[in-house]
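B., you asked whether I could sanity-check this one before it goes into the benchmark set. Here's the sequence:
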Amino acid sequence: MKSIFYLILFLFMSVSCNTKKSTNDEELLKKAKEIHKRVITLDTHDDINIKNFTDSINYSQRLENQVNLPKMKEGGLDVAWFIVYTGQDSLNVEGYKNAYDNAMSKFDAIHRLVNVYAPNEIELALTSDDVRRINATGKKVAMIGIENGYPIGTDLSNVKKFYDLGGRYMSLAHNGHSQLSDSNTGEKDNLWLHNGLSELGKQVIAEMNKQGMMIDISHPSKEAIKQMISLSKAPVIASHSSARALCDHSRNLDDELLKLVKENGGVVQTVAFKSYLNTEKFEKRVKYDIEVAKEILDSMNVKWLEREEIGKLSAADRGKYFEHLGKMVPIRNKKMKLMKGLPPAVSVADLVDHIDYMVKLIGIEHVGISSDFDGGGGIEGWEDASETFNVTLELVKREYTENQISMLWSDNLLRVLDEVQKVAAEMQSEN
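And here's what the prediction gave me:
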């Protein structure tokens, strides 16, 4: 009889605990949904392909790419920074012209989206006030960032031209040294072109301050970043970087740089890029990713290329290859979800681990969130804009308050934009 009594008691307690856990989970989910709806969610880095900006194919449709209007609505992503990206090529007149033309085509594509294809659904913002005004109407918000200053060429007036077209941040290099700045990629062989910034690069920093364009430190070398922070009269941003202490990649910021960003008043936008978040998980899983990717690309009559091979392609061929990858990735993701026995994937939890680390090191005022969607970003739980809520949910699970979540999602970045534009106004009035 005694044993039966204890069995019944055990079963009762188990049911009670499970019911309590279920109730707590439901309450947490409800709380996260309410917070996600109230805060302005802002992603500072979403690449684009101009082939998705036509009369027949555009972001008003639920395309296979990671960011478009239907997916933004599904996931509650309010603000997307669309990227005018140009891959690094030759430092000569022809290279600069091709890069400039590429940049202008992307500016034009973004303007067509907001003015022609979906003006009732999305609007271009140029200031933080614009962001809040547009968001209050129920529309989505577009902003423009420039990845790689290479298209400037040697013409300093292009900084103002790009600003007038809506560009509100710019990095001075990408993968490969530009005429303005050394890239993080020089770390591999310890080969540098400028030992930081070129003289023209230093002039570009001053001009960006004068125009009110945020300086993006996400791709340049460590020495270049230190020089940018030293020269800039305004706060800087890292539009899509994470903490090097947790993942030793040259694209991430070490503690010294993170602390310099804090002193500068800037913000680091933690990025949902697998190989920048968890080296151990990434390396165990990547061979399976590549194996499935190769099979899918082979069915598309496309050869898989290693990073070094991609870097040797012309800008046009590189663009075509990335287009193929963009079609392959969602197919791979669906296929791998059905596969059993795979190592754990880099996930939203890993992203928030980096947020936790940087918040502890430099303060929550200097940390934000980005995806690098359609440019290689995407992790388990946040594979495209439709899953944006999962980031908020993880933050709520870790007991971040609504005010803190709002800071991480948009307040910190918009505060920097305000300060950068204030410095520009002061500089222009002095002149």
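One thing to flag: The chain has two domains: 39-277+346-430, 279-344. Otherwise nothing jumped out at me.
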